[in-house]
Amino acid sequence: MKSWVLCVAVAACLTACATTTSSTGRKQYVGGMSQQQLDQLGAQAFTEAKSKGPISNDAKQNAYVRCVVNALVRQLPAAQQQVAWETAVFADKEPNAFALPGGKVGVNTGIFTVARNQDQLAAVIAHEIGHVVEHHHDERITRQMGAQTGVSLLGALVGSRYGDAGSSLATQGGSLLAQTGFLLPGTREQESEADVVGQRLMARAGFDPRQAVDLWQNMMQASSGSRPPQWLSTHPDPSSRIRELQRDVPALLPVYESARKAGNTPRCG
Q1: In terms of residue numbers, what domain contains 195?
Q2: In the record, which residues are listed under signal peptide (predicted)?
C-alpha cells in the first residue's frame, strides 16, 4: 500500500509539469514554476549578486555592455523585448557572464580579457541570453523538483523494506546520482543549445558569427591546463564547441550580411 501511495504521489508531481520543444527541436520538461515566479527569482538573484559586488562604476564599460545587450534584445521575440532588461558589470577578474529570467544580465570585467571586441562580447552575452529564451532555468528547476521528489520517495520506499539505514543510504546515493545526472547549473546539452541559439541571435543583431569561434579560441588559451574532466563539466569540451560553432558559420554569414544591410550595425566599442 505504501508503494502504491508513493507512486501516485510521483504521478501527481509529474502531471503538474509539461513537455515542450525548444527552438532547436530539443524536447524539454518544464513548468515547475510560472514565468512570473521565475522572473521574481531572477530579480532576487540579481539583487543579491549586486549586493555582494563589487560593482564596476566604469561608465565606459557599463555603456559598452548595455549597448551590446540592447542590440541583441532588439532581435528577440516581442514578449522578451518588452521586458525591462537590466545590466551590471562586476569588478571581478574571473572571465564570466550570466543572464537570468526577468531580463537581468551580469558581466565580469574579466570577460574583457577574452572577449576582445564587440562581436566576441556579443557571443558571450547572446549565449547567456540563449539560456533564458530557451527556458533552461525553468527546465533545470523542474528537473530539480522532480529529482528531490524522486529521491525522497526512493528513501521512503527503501526505508519501508530495509529500515532507516537503507533509507539514508538510498537517499544519499540518489542525491549524488541526481547531481551528476542533471542537477549541475547547466547541462552540456543546454550549453550546446545556448551556443547555437546565441550564435544565431548575434548574427541577426549584426554581430559577426565568426567571432564566436575566435572567442572560444581565446577561452581555450586562457584556461589551458585548468579544465575539469569533460564528463563532470557542464560545458562541452572547448575543441568540440569550436567545431560546432565553425560548422554553423556558413549558414549564418548570409544572415549577418542581411542584418547589416538592413541597418543592424552595432557600434558599441
Answers
A1: 1-269
A2: 1-18
Give this prediction's pTM: 0.78
257 is catalytic: no
Helix (H) or strand (E) holding 43: helix 35-52
Between CA 26 and CA 19 the distance in angstroms is: 10
Assess contact for 199 and 209: CB atoms under 8 A. Answer: yes
Task: List b or e across 80-90, with b for residues whose CB sees 16 or more CB atoms inside 10 angstroms.
Answer: eeeeebbbbbb
Catalytic member of 94, 128, 134, 191? 128
| Cα 9 from Cα 160, distance rounded (Å) | 16
Domain tally for the chain? Answer: 1
**Integer Cα distance of 40 and 46 in angstroms:** 10
Residue 159 has pLDDT above 90, yes or no: no
